[in-house]
Specification:
The structure holds two protein chains of two kinds.
Chain A (H helix, E strand, L loop, with lengths): L6 H53 L13 H8 L1 H33 L5 H13 L2 H12 L4 H8 L13 H26 L3 H9 L4 H29 L2 H8 L10 H10 L3 H34 L1
Chain B lengths: L1 H30 L7 E9 L6 E8 L2 E10 L4 E10 L5 E4 L7 E8 L5 E12 L6 H10 L7 H14 L2 E2 L2 E5 L10 E13 L6 E6 L14 E4 L5 E4 L4 E5 L5 E6 L4 E6 L5 E7 L2 E8 L4 E2 L6 H4 L8 E4 L5 E4 L3 E6 L4 E7 L10 E6 L5 E7 L6 E11 L7 E7 L4 H13 L3 E7 L5 H13 L6 E3 L5 H6 L7 H6 L9 H6 L1 E2 L2 E2 L5 E10 H4 L7 H9 L12 H9 L7 E2 L4 E2 L4 H10 L14 H6 L6 E5 L2 H11 L3 E3 L11 E4 L4 E3 L6 H12 L1 H6 L10 E2 L2 H12 L2 E4 L5 E4 L2 E5 L2 E5 L4 H13 L2 E2 L5 H15 L5 H19 L1
Parallel strand pairs in B: 27-28, 27-29, 37-44
Antiparallel strand pairs in B: 1-26, 2-3, 3-4, 4-5, 6-7, 7-10, 8-9, 9-10, 10-11, 12-13, 13-14, 14-15, 16-17, 17-18, 18-19, 20-21, 21-22, 22-23, 24-25, 25-26, 29-38, 30-31, 32-35, 32-36, 32-37, 32-39, 33-34, 40-41, 42-43
The chains are: A mainly alpha, B alpha+beta.
Chain lengths: ~300, ~800
């Protein structure tokens, strides 16, 4: 007996077959993409995510030998530690001063170099050159300059000034801010110059034709277009401001003058004393502050730059 | 094929990754404590019952070991030299008749390719001197021995020692019999000869006898320290200076090769090449000796040969099949120069052998290693021969492994571990030495191992800040273990135990210790030990002495004031410090009055300076009653062991003589580890620290052993004079700088004084954190150079140390 073909069923069959193939292909595609992702994913998991959880674990036990769970005791201990408070205050103070300076000064430099001034490219190279100097050499130069028997004191001595121990007095933070700016301005400046050159020329021309003042052009057009770069530069400068420990450590060691004692000093010394709990708790607290700060920066950028990014 | 290429490549990469991960796994398991070996070298001891008291050089021909032995004959005043042959196969020994003279001695000995024994003989031929002059020297020396005017015995002793010291006259050695009492003496001149002898190993007959003294550059003082023979039977000699002398098989000189530094060893390989060892630019260097070019070849820099920074006592012997058989303090290995391959055979510790006792080693044709061991612990040196046989691990009774971790293994601790391993049927201790060429790398590794929970079961805490580990719960409280085993802590010096206590718990045992202290005249500082910093400064400022110490510089005096007294300036409870206070500024200004550089060229000795009050104090340590007696003599009057300045007046500090041990709280075998520590507290061990001759560089921890030591110190020694009367004689003699003194039995008063010094010590020495000293040293530098004021310096120190204190309080 012949079976009657049901066109509906046949059609469905065809449909189901192509959907299965598609699913299969999509599955294969996913598998391949995960396969390609796996090495880097494994690396991130192994070297970033896993250590982060280990750090969280360490921050909640009494020590890696006993492994007694103490919940937030380590955080309380660290937060009430006077050295930690001092380090947090110094780091915040340094970032609050150095980061805006780094952004504003580099923006000003970029604006300046955008104008057609003589020796433009030489200036650009000059401001970029600190990036190319290794930190060890930078420190050597800074020591020669700001040591108690250094060049700066010799120079001010010519005018009868008393010697100042630049790195071991309340002046130390000023020296470090100058060092930070010297090292970072060039890079920030290049970023701003790139951003400035990408502002649509037609809008600027229209503004000029509409008799807008340079200040109005800067404030209402350029800043709007630069907002994402400003955010990026600020975040980079903020991160770099935390990294200034490297220079301070090389200049003055584990225990510098108290005005330049930074968070990383605290953590580095905790590591040296094998106090992993203190180190972990401090690191987590610091990362939380960083997350909040960067979050605020993103919100600000969203607010100011939303109309130009579309 | 093309499409498969990528897949093959991927598979290969995965394979490589898996292999590398497997590699990681193996190394991590190796790093653990429980290292299982496939083979062990099991020792089998044989007594070397030879007639001689002293066994010197050896040579091996076939399966026969030849040993040169000598004894001293008191009656004839000559040595009795003998050559022994020991058959490895039968274990029988016999004497080989060699034509030795009483004045002969064998400096070096080696076998040649024909099976003969080549020896370097030194011989002294006596002849009586006509004129026994030399009294001038003796008088001169008496004049020089200042500082001992009040002590007649001391003067006599120094006079005697002078008479005995004037022996060398133009390359000849003059010996004098004890003629000081008579005032005249007969002097005998000995002329030295150095000869090369070649004897037949079968019958001891002499084949060659050649005078080789003219070969040496400084012939009169030459002493051949190293000798080896190549495959052509050329003889290579070195007297430890900077020359290698090469002779042919008949003793004729072939050449002299100069070396930049001193020759530290000479050895030949199985292949017949000769190498020498010397100090190079980067530590020890091994260089080939080329007699064709009459020079040295390129350095063999391989670490496989030279070992790491931990190895010493290296000795190299001709290999059985290839290269050399090497031995050092760690163990025995085979090294092939051709392939730069090293095969470690075993470690001495694993074979329960103390490497300090190993004299010679070699390898038998059946692969066994033989070694001659010297045991100096008895009055007469005991020699034994040990065979080490390679045995599969399955045939060796397995013990539970314990690990002893230390920066450097102390000789006494090593001996204790070997004794423990030999006697304990259940546990075996292995040792991990963390020291490397870079101290800090080793220390970091030690710290990392401990804090990661993989630390050794027993930890030597002498070189580490143990209190840091206590706070981390790494160390075990030892009091419960003592109680469990019925060890009464009252039987031990409680003040020493207390010094290693934290919150009433004991974390370290110091089996033997000495006291570091400061000594002053009792007439100046009173009888009671201990003073505060201000008391010490007042005392010095009111005196008119040249210096506080014999060699006191600004920096050393500054650290003397604060190093053991740092807590006077830091309140760890509140986290406050007071380095900018008047006290610290006073110390800075006080230290600044002293010279910046030390003048070591002073002609006047310490005793003289102390007696005339040119110098006020002496920083030293005391480890025996005899030292106390000597110090009293040195000062010329009663002394007080006042100690370092300390706010609690506890300035006498405890210092371990042979390490201090602690038990790892995370050890998987705490009971086993305690078994070892318990031995250090046992009567047997503690009594072994009692010295027959008055000083074993420390006091025992156990009171009963200390009393035994005191009893020995108080027991007089006598000799019988010509009338048959018992006359007390000196027990020993001690000297320090310009002062010498004969030590007689101690009085009860002296013993009581030493007891008081010991019980006054309640703190351990040297626990100031390196960070603090670094800050202080860095900041005081400018002050001592006159660039900064004391106030500015103190302010900066205060500022920087305050951070440290805040961190840690």
């Amino acid at each position: 007996m012949k079976k009657r073909k049901n066109p509906k069923t046949e059609g469905l069959k065809v449909d189901r077959g192509s959907a299965g193939k598609k699913n299969k292909r999509a599955f294969k595609g996913k598998l391949i993409s995960w396969g390609y992702l796996f090495p880097s994913l494994a690396g991130v998991l192994l070297f970033f995510v896993l250590p982060f959880f280990v750090v969280i674990y360490y921050s909640m036990v009494d020590n890696p030998i006993n492994n007694q769970f103490v919940f937030l005791d380590n955080f309380v201990k660290v937060a009430t530690n006077k050295a930690f408070q001092q380090a947090a205050y110094n780091t915040m103070k340094f970032s609050a001063v150095a980061v805006p300076l780094a952004v504003i000064l580099s923006l000003l430099l970029a604006m300046m170099l955008e104008c057609k001034i003589p020796f433009r490219s030489q200036f650009r190279t000059f401001f970029l050159s600190p990036m190319m100097v290794p930190v060890a050499s930078v420190i050597l130069i800074w020591q020669v300059l700001f040591h108690y028997n250094g060049i700066v004191n010799d120079f001010t001595g010519l005018f009868g000034a008393d010697k100042v121990d630049w790195l071991k007095s309340s002046h130390a933070q000023v020296v470090i801010v100058i060092l930070f700016l010297w090292k970072n301005l060039g890079y920030n400046m290049i970023l701003f110059m790139a951003a400035l050159s990408s502002i649509p020329k037609d809008i600027l021309e229209v503004a000029v034709l509409e008799s807008a003042t340079p200040l109005q052009i800067f404030w209402h057009i350029k800043i709007r277009y630069l907002s994402s770069t400003i955010l990026f530069v600020t975040i980079m400068s903020l991160i770099n401001s935390f990294k200034v420990f490297r220079e301070i450590y090389l200049l003055t060691g584990n225990y510098p003058y108290d005005s330049i004692y930074m968070m990383q000093h605290f953590m580095n010394n905790a590591f040296g004393q094998l106090d992993y709990q203190k180190l972990s708790a401090a690191a987590i607290m610091m990362s939380m502050v960083m997350v909040i700060l960067i979050g605020i920066l993103f919100l600000t950028e969203n607010y100011f730059g939303k109309d130009v990014e579309g | 094929m093309k499409r498969y290429r990528k897949r093959i490549l991927a598979v290969l990469l995965i394979g490589t990754m898996v292999l590398s991960l497997a590699g990681c796994n193996r190394s991590s398991s190796d790093a653990g404590n429980q290292v299982k070996k496939d083979f062990y070298y099991v020792p089998e001891y044989h007594d070397l019952e030879l007639a001689s008291d002293y066994i010197g050089e050896t040579a091996v021909v076939g399966n026969t070991l030849y040993l040169y032995g000598s004894s001293w004959n008191e009656e004839t005043g000559e040595s009795i030299n003998s050559m022994y042959q020991y058959d490895f196969l039968s274990g029988q020994s016999s004497e080989l008749p060699v034509d030795f003279d009483g004045n002969d001695s064998v400096q070096q000995m080696c076998e040649d390719s024909e099976g003969n024994i080549v020896m370097i003989m030194s011989r002294y031929a006596p002849s009586v001197l006509e004129d026994a002059a030399g009294t001038e020297d003796a008088d001169q020396q008496d004049d020089d021995s200042t500082g001992a005017e009040d002590n007649d015995e001391a003067d006599e002793t120094s006079g005697e020692s002078v008479a005995l010291s004037k022996k060398t006259v133009a390359g000849s050695v003059i010996s004098e019999e004890d003629a000081a009492d008579e005032g005249t003496y007969e002097a005998v001149e000995y002329t030295s000869y150095i000869e090369l002898w070649k004897i037949n190993s079968e019958d001891g007959s002499t084949i060659v006898k050649t005078d080789i003294k003219p070969v040496f550059e400084d012939a009169d003082n030459a002493y051949v320290q190293y000798m080896t023979i190549d495959n052509e039977d050329n003889v290579y000699l070195s007297d430890g200076n900077s020359n290698i002398y090469v002779l042919d098989k008949d003793g004729n000189k072939i050449c002299t090769i100069s070396v930049e530094n001193w020759v530290e060893n000479l050895f030949a390989t199985k292949e017949g090449k000769v190498f020498m060892r010397t100090w190079g630019n980067n530590g020890m260097a091994v260089k080939p000796v080329d007699i064709q070019k009459k020079s040295l070849g390129e350095d063999v820099t391989s670490e496989n040969l030279n070992g790491n920074g931990n190895s010493y006592n290296q000795n190299y012997y001709k290999g059985l099949e290839k290269g050399i058989l090497g031995s050092d303090n760690n163990g025995v290995f085979i090294y092939d120069f051709e392939t730069d391959v090293r095969e470690d055979l075993f470690s001495w510790l694993d074979a329960d052998i103390n490497s300090d006792e190993v004299s010679e080693i070699g390898q038998l044709s059946d692969g066994r290693i033989w070694a001659i061991l010297r045991d100096y612990s008895e009055e007469k040196t005991k020699y034994s021969l040990v065979y080490l046989t390679k045995t599969p691990a399955s045939e060796v009774p397995q013990k539970e492994e314990l690990l002893f971790g230390t920066m450097w293994l102390n000789q006494n601790v090593r001996k204790s571990i070997i004794d423990f391993n030999k006697s304990n049927a259940k546990y075996h201790i292995s040792v991990k030495e963390y020291s490397t060429d870079d101290y800090m790398t080793g220390l970091t590794q030690f710290n990392n191992d401990i804090t990661s929970g993989n630390g050794p079961d027993i930890i030597d805490i002498s070189d580490i800040d143990y209190k840091q580990y206590v706070s981390k719960g790494v160390l075990e409280n030892l009091y419960p273990y003592m109680e469990k085993d019925g060890i009464n802590k009252e039987d031990y010096l409680m003040n020493v135990l207390k010094a290693y206590e934290v919150d009433g718990k004991l974390y370290g045992i110091v089996p033997q210790f000495y006291i570091t202290t400061t000594i002053a005249k009792a007439s100046k500082v009173g009888d009671t030990p201990g003073w505060t910093l201000n008391e010490m400064l007042d005392f010095v400022e009111h005196s008119e002495a040249e210096n506080i110490f014999q060699y006191g510089s600004r920096e050393s005096i500054f650290y003397y004031c604060i190093y053991n007294n740092i807590d006077e300036f830091i309140d760890w409870e509140t986290g406050e410090c007071r380095f900018n206070g008047d006290d610290f500024i006073r110390v800075l200004e006080f230290a600044n009055k002293f010279p910046e550089e030390i003048d070591y060229n002073s002609d006047e000795g310490i005793s003289s300076k102390l007696r005339s009050d040119k110098v006020l104090l002496m920083q030293t340590s005391i480890s025996s009653v005899q030292e106390y007696q000597m110090m009293n003599g040195l000062f010329g009057e009663k002394t007080t062991y006042i100690g370092y300045p300390n706010s609690e007046r506890k300035g006498n500090l405890i210092q371990p003589t042979n390490g201090s041990v602690a038990l790892n709280a995370k050890s998987k075998n705490k009971d086993g580890a305690w078994e070892f520590i318990k031995i250090l507290l046992s009567d047997d061990y503690q009594n072994s620290l009692v010295s027959e001759w008055g000083s074993s560089w420390g006091f025992p921890l156990k009171k009963s052993a200390l009393d035994k030591q005191f009893e020995k110190d108080m027991t007089p020694e006598y000799y019988e004079d010509e009338n048959g009367n018992q006359v007390e004689q000196m027990k020993t003699s001690w000297g320090y700088d310009d002062f010498n003194m004969d030590i007689y039995a101690a009085t009860q008063e002296e013993i009581d004084a030493v007891k008081e010094i010991i019980t006054s010590a309640e703190k351990t020495s040297g626990s100031v954190n390196e960070e603090l000293t670094n800050i202080i040293t860095e900041e005081t530098g400018a002050f001592f150079k006159g660039q900064k004021s004391a106030k500015d310096t103190a302010d900066i120190i205060q500022n920087r140390i305050q951070i440290y204190v805040k961190e840690n309080s």
